[in-house]
Amino acid sequence: MTSVQVEEHHDGNEAGQSAAGQSGEGEGYQRGLGARQIQMIAIGGAIGTGLFLGAGKAIHKAGPSLILAYAIAGLVIFFIMRALGELLMYRAVSGSFSEYAREFIGPFFGYVTGWTYWLFWVVTGITEVTAAAQYMQYWTHDSIPQWGYALIFTVILYGANLISVKLFGELEFWFSMVKVTAIIGMILICVGILTIGFSDAGDTASVTHLWDQGGFFPNGIGSTLMTLQIVMFAFLAVELVGVTAGESKDPKTVLPKAINTVPWRIAVFYVGALIMILSVVPWTEFVPGVSPFVAAFDKMGLGIGAAIVNFVVLTAALSSCNSGMYSTGRMLRDLAMNGQGPKFFTKLTKNGLPLVGTTFSAALMLVGVWINYQWPGEAFNYVVSFATISGMWAWIMILVCQIKYRRKADRGELPQSTFRAPGAPYTSWFALAFIGMVIVMMGIDKDARISLYAAPVWALILGVGYLVMQRRNTQVSGGGKAEPQDAVK
């Protein structure tokens, strides 16, 4: 359903009817994701390499105050997710952010959002397959080159995503289960050390480490603010649950439950885990480039800990790459269905999978294999910054669309959502201001500034592409939706 169709649908007495009822079947997809899988996708989306690896650099910069940074950023993420939830219960579609931008802001913003979110996952896929290849070196010690692992993982995940959406859901379920189990296990071990005093860290572990090593803000509030980009990168992909809307078996029940778990997920997996780790190991002992989980296990004298954490971060990276394979094909198909991308991206397999879009995206992710071949040491850093800025664009669009939707709904022009965001629109404006502050911090940080240089280049490419498609396809300016092509036999 396009923005034009939505306007027609909501005329007169039809305004109260369910636009939210657009089904995955109506889009050609199959509803193969159950409640169990959606819940774990939502949980796993908030736990990635940003926590397992990036937190080491952030702790080094901010000390214990990083806990506060994660808590505040987590609150902002909850506001974003509740804004997304309100939109999803108004109209649950697989295109999600792109569809809402198209309806509430205009066709051009739908086009920009769809292609930018697609690029975000392609770049993230390259980042994570690079990380996964690096983690494998822990066990194989270069017996297989890093680029070889990147190729193997890309091919395996591509194949899995072409079998069925249910298999994608199962992979994400178990990837997420590993991450969740690891963090809960770490928290329980730390609680045991603090209360019983076992392991090598038992004699020195204390919650006073949170303030007795230079204070809670040992490097000043400014240093804490500079870590916000790292913190926000850790939360990227939490919005993926919105892309699954068109393939969820019971989106009106499952999605609100998944979104409402955001606060406790962040409280346990980020704030809780950091409080425990920094109580057992003083923040001064953490160094950039070393996982805080590995450092904590070493301090405890648990040698097996490094191998465990390496396995966990490997699954986290593969989980993110798997999500990238899933979301890119759906986003390209949504763009094509709205005349904002090549029509061949609309093709589905007999199992309701976007074959061409997923294949095209996976082929671009193979660029990561080449990057790993050319620059195995710097590959991860080359692409991670741009992933942050492009991912945050989706959050901005979610918030702006929710503000505009709420205005129309309150005026009676659109049906009210059954899952209204509490405190909106004020919470949405607060979240937008926070994201703006993070972008400013990225501009100040010389290491992250490269992403801001790349953004105008990407905007120029999109602008030129949009003008070309306007001339070739009147549907771009009119918002009309292309008919889906027959399933691939």
Automatic annotation (TrEMBL):
Gene Ontology cellular-component terms listed: plasma membrane
Localization: Cell membrane
Protein's GO biological process: amino acid transport; transmembrane transport
Segments forming domain Amino acid permease/ SLC12A: 38-474
Stored PROSITE patterns: AMINO_ACID_PERMEASE_1
Primary location group: membrane
Compositionally biased residues, Basic and acidic residues: 1-13
Region (Disordered): 1-28
Key words of the record: Amino-acid transport, Cell membrane, Membrane, Transmembrane, Transmembrane helix, Transport
InterPro entries in UniProt: AA-permease/SLC12A_dom, Amino_acid_permease_CS
Membrane-spanning intervals of the chain: 40-59, 65-84, 104-127, 147-168, 180-199, 219-241, 262-281, 301-321, 353-373, 379-403, 424-444, 450-469
Membrane topology annotation: Multi-pass membrane protein
Pfam family, one: AA_permease
PANTHER family: GABA PERMEASE, L-ASPARAGINE PERMEASE
Similarity field: Belongs to the amino acid-polyamine-organocation (APC) superfamily. Amino acid transporter (AAT) (TC 2.A.3.1) family.
Name the UniProt record assigns to this protein: Amino acid permease
Species in which this protein is naturally found: Streptomyces kanamyceticus
